[in-house]
Structure formats: C-alpha cells, structure tokens
Design brief:
Largest sheet: none
Distance between the termini: 21 Å
Order of helices and strands: HH
Strand content: under 5%
Helix content: over 70%
Oligomer: single chain
Number of helices: 2
Number of strands: 0
C-alpha cells in the first residue's frame, strides 16, 4: 500500500502534464492563426499574442521540468 501511494503523486503530475500539453496543443493549433490574423495590422497586439504563446510554452516547460525533476529526486 505505501509503495503505491509514493508513486501516485508522480503519476498524477505526469497525467496532468500530458492532459495540459494535449489541451494546449489543440488550443494553439485551433486559434494561433486566427489570433495572428486578427492582429495582422497592429504590431503591439501581435507582440502581445506572441508573448501569450511564449508564456504558455514557458509554463508547460516548467511544469514538465518540475514533474520530471520529481522523478529523479
């Protein structure tokens, strides 16, 4: 029983990472072109959209890093 509960937090974090990554990939694939098309004539808005996507990728990378770091530690 105790061995099971020790691996559960990692398994939950890994499952959450997979779900978040798939969800974010769907959102990016669906709306990236629309957002960039809507901001085509306003450079400031285009910078904002680019920063939003960078923040999304950064948060995903951090989530994966912390999850996989937990595996090693």
């Amino acid at each position: 029983m105790e061995g099971e509960s020790a691996s559960n937090p990692f398994q939950r974090r890994l499952a959450l990472c997979v779900v978040q990554t798939v969800f974010n990939a769907i959102i990016v694939a669906r709306y990236a072109r629309t957002l960039y098309g809507a901001t085509n004539y306003d450079q400031l808005q285009q910078v904002g959209v680019t920063l939003l996507f960078a923040a999304l990728l950064g948060s995903l990378a951090r989530m994966w890093f912390l999850t996989l770091k937990g595996l090693a530690g």
